[in-house]
Amino acid sequence: MSAPASATGRARIGARTLRTDHWWLPPLVTFLGLMAFVIYGLIRTFMNQWYWVPEHNYLAPFFSPCLSAACVPGSSHFGQPFPDLGWLIPPPIFVLPFVLGFRLTCYYYRKAYYRAFWASPPACAVGEPHSRYTGESRFPLVMQNVHRYFFYAAMLVAAVLTYDTVIAFKGTGGGVGVGLGTVLMVVNVVLLWSYTLSCHSCRHLIGGRLNHFSRHPVRYWLWTKITWLNGKHMLLAWSSLVSVALVDLYVMLVAAGAITDLRLFN
After folding, report:
1. Separation between Cα atoms, residue 232 and residue 166, nearest integer Å
2. pTM of the prediction?
3. What is the dihedral of CA 37, 42, 47, 53, to 10 degrees?
4. What does the pLDDT look like over 161-191, one tens digit per residue?
5. 193 vs 102, 114, 176, CA distance in Å?
6. CA 25 to CA 31: how far, in whole Å?
């Protein structure tokens, strides 16, 4: 007969894990991917240039909406309510906290950076190096509970980026035109909306408080669609993260004159 379970309900073994596969690879790849985005984001934020292409109305997503008096002419589609506060507080600083707040408190990203950066735990069936576990009951992790409010801010930012994409359909000589930058911006807003709407908070908002789906057929239909998206939340989290950086990089290269926008038609 097997030995009875211990009082703690866990097997007492000396090894950190008995896994023989490359369990350390996923958290390592996650760490490298997130660090690459963080480094790129910091460089672009404090670079504070090459984010607006006036001839095509291309605005880099890291600088949208551009609400500071430091913004270059033409890039402020919603006015400039904030003053120019110097290089320490470039225009993205006024918006990025809300965007990052949504991603940092996202249920998927919590799992990703808890494992990759804090090793809490680094993988399933692998012991963590921490002596205590308090969950998200103390500061600063108790702030994860404001995720639902960051969701509303993320919806607003996605709407602004959608507006940026619409006005990017500008021809070289006026009228309607489409370039590679326009296509990339369309793909970006589709991925951003998909990621935002696949959020667990959105799913709860649509159908979490309903006791009878049969009495609310429209909300039930929406809930099933959001649930389908929610199953792809991890994929959408990464793809939207990459698309934001890719569009921002493309606009930067065009604005700097390093490349010319490939026009599909003018």
Report:
1. 26
2. 0.89
3. 40
4. 999 999 999 877 778 999 999 999 999 999 9
5. 13, 25, 24
6. 10
